[in-house]
Structure prediction request, 334 residues.
Amino acid sequence: MEITGKDIAQISGARNLIPAGTPVKIAFLGNETHEQRLNAARVIHECGFAPEPIISARRLSSQAEADGLIRAYLAAGKPQRFFIVGGDPAMPAGPYDNAMRLMESGILARHGITRIGIAGHPEGHPKATDEMLWDALEWKRAFLSKSGVDFEITTQFGLDPVAVIDWIADLRACGFDNLVRIGVPGPTDAGKLLRFAQRFGVKSSLGVLRRYGISLTRLLHPVGPERFLQGLGRAMQDKAAQGRRSGGDILSHSTPLAAWIRAALAASGGRGAAGRASRDRSGAGTEAEIDGDDLKRTVTGNRSWSGCLDDAQSSKARQWDRAQSGQARSYRRS
Prediction:
């Protein structure tokens, strides 16, 4: 899950929606300050969740700023994992032009960081070739393994489940057994989703849009991720039939969290809903798995993604019908 500094107030109102210990990434946006990010870390920690700050290498002006921000995060929210990315700016603000340069600066060792997240791009990146992206993943694996740092991979959100599962199959074939969190966009209107897709280089052909349930003639129509999640299950089954491994440890990563919270509250009449914490391999609660009348279900533990999708589809459809009906009414009112 991911949230911005400006939306952090919604976390407090969603305690009953999100199980304790759930990791929540803190966005590193160019229009927010470090004070807003640190406040978000404090609130997430105080609410019983696990803050995971995103560190955007290209937005850091100096090593001093990078070290100061990490120290402040550790004091404010006691994060157990940081998410290290290159970032969006066309020109770096300081000495780090990508995540690799920040990692090799020694920042992880200086602050005793032993768990991080890195980015994956199943549908490519607008400013990098596929070869460059795979080379970066290989470099990070070698560097982090040598440094004794455990890492997981969170993918950029996408609209094409087949492309995502193809990428995971390639990842597993290359020997990456790390946990993968698949980026799943939160409920929004079709037009806004397409603008996000264009900004982040996500492919959005007409065929992909139809599979996601998006019509270019209904750009204000609310859309949710249910077709995408169902498509992931089908794509994994197809890969299994081909004898290719595309599973392993997989969870979802919901962006932005504020949109999920709004839809969940709408679906439950503003009352919230009780969830239960999933377990990672050590038995600690790590990611949201919300059943029954709750909005979102995330694959956890040893259960396969496709198996969870099969038994969740009927309840998920009802949940999203309720959420989307509420959103549609709000659009008409506005």
